[in-house]
Specification:
single chain, 279 residues, alpha/beta, Rossmann fold, seven-stranded mixed beta sheet, 8 helices, 19% strand, SAM-dependent_MTases_sf, transferase, Class I SAM-dependent methyltransferase, Methyltransf_12, methyltransferase activity
Length: 279
Amino acid sequence: MATETSSADPPPRPGDEGRYGERVFRPGDTGEADRIDHGALAYDATTLSRLRQLGAGPGWRCLDVGAGTGSVARRLLREAGVAEVVAVDRDTRFLAEDPPEGLTPLEADVLADGFDPGRFDLVHARFVLMHLPDPARMTARLAGLLAPGGVLVVGDAVDLTTAAAPRAPVPDALRAMWQGLHDTIGTDVSWVPGLPRLLADAGLRSVAAEIHVPPLVPGSPISRFWAQTWERSRQAMVATGLVDDAGVDEAVRSLESPGFAGFSPGLLTAWGRAPGDRA
């Protein structure tokens, strides 16, 4: 599934191409919002269920870090009935499209020394830390934004397939993708199984975690997400020498094959509470 890009697409912001991923995943590229939304369709229900089980509801003030198109922020308002969601991202063009009451888009750099949007009952970040340097430091920074008794929920990708999987188009493409993204924009998922320990080290209590692995079914949102992600990262994947262009094409075709059997990378979600009681 190829994703076209426009010659009018804006360039990355100077100096950000590696650290923030704009070298590969540029918000202004044609089809990028659709790619993000396909991932949201695969994971949002699981995320919202966990956030509501942790108490997110009326009166809560929430911070959604790396909010993307705002799917989690909007559902927190619509389904959980929270009071406010501050949705922060490096690029808020998708968040500014018809924002509902209670949604506050904030264009900001979470790595900046001055980033301090307030204190929140819930701080949520999904598929963010894996792209940033020093996840332990970032976890501690997010924990510091919690009000007493507030909850930090962090989710990142965990791949249970590629290390032991036999050679086949989809596992080969995943291996090349992780390596290529690491080489180009610094993505690193190797530490993600240790995410609960990072929350505990940040001083949070009642730390726990779960993994959701969506099935790779032809035509499903997650299958479309990976196909579009491989098209976006094709150059980086091929540069690893682990696959060639024909291998990427075969992996995309495999995702749409009724006979395909295999796993998608999953979402490891970990959470913990700040000391104290909510006001």
